[in-house]
Amino acid sequence: MRDFISILDFSRSELESIFEEADRMREINCSDILEGRIMALAFFEPSTRARLGFSAAMFKLGGGVIELGGPEKSAMSRGENFSDTIKVLDGIADVIVIRHGLEGASKLAAQIAESPVINAGDGSREYPVQGILDLYAIKSFLGRIDGLHIGIIGDLRYGRSVRSFILGLTRFLPAKLYLMSPESLKIKEDIREALNISRIDFEEISWLEEVISELDVLYVTRLQKERFPDISEYEKLKGTYRIEKSLLKEAKERMIILHPLPRTDELSPEVDETPHAKYFKQAALYVPVAMAILRAAML
Ligand code: ASP
User: Fold this and answer.
1) Residue 2: inside a domain, yes or no?
2) I want to staple 260 with a disulfide (CB 3.0 to 4.6 A). Which of 104, 138, 161, 194 is the partner?
3) Domain interval for residue 215
4) Residue pLDDT, tens place only, 52-62
5) First CA to last CA across the chain, in angstroms?
6) Are residues 182 and 261 in the same domain?
7) pLDDT over 70 percentage in the chain
8) Looking at the structure, do residues 198 and 105 belong to the same domain, yes or no?
């Protein structure tokens, strides 16, 4: 049994075994691997993919799903604290998938619970499930992660998905990362350090046009509106970057565009018609990846 708190808790070979397991899970529609086991969803923030992706994964593995629900539904509305709530869930469920607005919430839950805890996003810190899914998507679409030129554009400061993705890339050998964001949303020092320690070649760029023809992968993320300490700062930065179809004229034929979703204004819907757009296929891979993660966490 194993917690999934940070993508850095996993070595390259462990990540590769999860990818292999996800490949196998794509063939499975219905199994009894987790029959009689219960997954609790403890979501303190809204979610589409994580909530539904994990539920679908558990159903396919033969297990059951229970949901804590919003604060108005649980005893938290009567003053029950986080730690007691987790203890109660731990007594009922065999695995806890948690999403919380506070950094470190999943780590705390893992310290409290005996059952494995899976971090489906804690504030702007990490979302290892998404990071593993992003790496797996690249592997599935392009056959490898090593040797690729990867452009990453968006809110690199507050985006937990993109943080887990970049940290996950340090387990591999990409040829070069190009990082582009508004000045105030550049990668934080810990990510810079992780890239340097792993000797990943990276460059912070101001114009995507200069490198688009080199890229094998373009990873796009939205501004994390809900994380800005000052909403006027968000309003100022809104619309400062947007991927349009015209930008892709110079792109390699096989270049893929990924996005953890939801999309707001940073990616024109016109791009959806291009063969580069892989983000909805990427989202569909959530289920086999969640199945592989549940297996790794629980068996
Ligand atoms: N769905 C992802 C997350 O929860 C990405 C995003 O919200 O931008 O982190």
Assistant:
1) no
2) 161
3) 128-284
4) 999 999 999 99
5) 6
6) yes
7) 100
8) no
C-beta of residue 222 within 8 angstroms of C-beta of residue 262: yes
pLDDT digits (tens, 9 = 90+) for 41-87: 999 999 999 999 999 999 999 999 999 988 788 888 888 899 999 99
Does 226 lie in the same domain as 159? yes
Distance 258 CA to ligand 1 centre (A): 13
Q: Helices 128-142 and 12-25 meet at what angle, rounded to 10?
A: 70
Looking at the fold, whether 102 and 133 belong to one and the same domain comes out as no
- Phi, psi for 80 (deg, rounded to 5): -70, 135
With a CB cutoff of 8 Å and minimum separation 6, the contacts of 156 are 162, 163, 166, 179, 181, 185, 186, 187, 191, 221
Q: What is the mean pLDDT of the chain?
A: 97
In terms of domains, do 137 and 102 share one?
A: no
Going by alpha carbons, the residue nearest to atom 9 of ligand 1 is: 161
Label residue 1 by pLDDT band (50, 70, 90): confident
Domain count, the chain: 2
Ligand 1 within 6 A of CB of 221? yes
Which of ligand 1's atoms lies nearest the C-alpha of 45? Answer: 4
Domain membership of residue 1 (yes or no) is no
pLDDT, residue 163, reads 98
User: In ligand 1, which atom is closest to the CA atom of 160?
Assistant: 9
Pocket residue to mutate for ligand 1, from 127, 164, 234, most atoms within 8 A of Cβ:
127
Decide: 279 in ligand 1 pocket, CB within 6 A: no
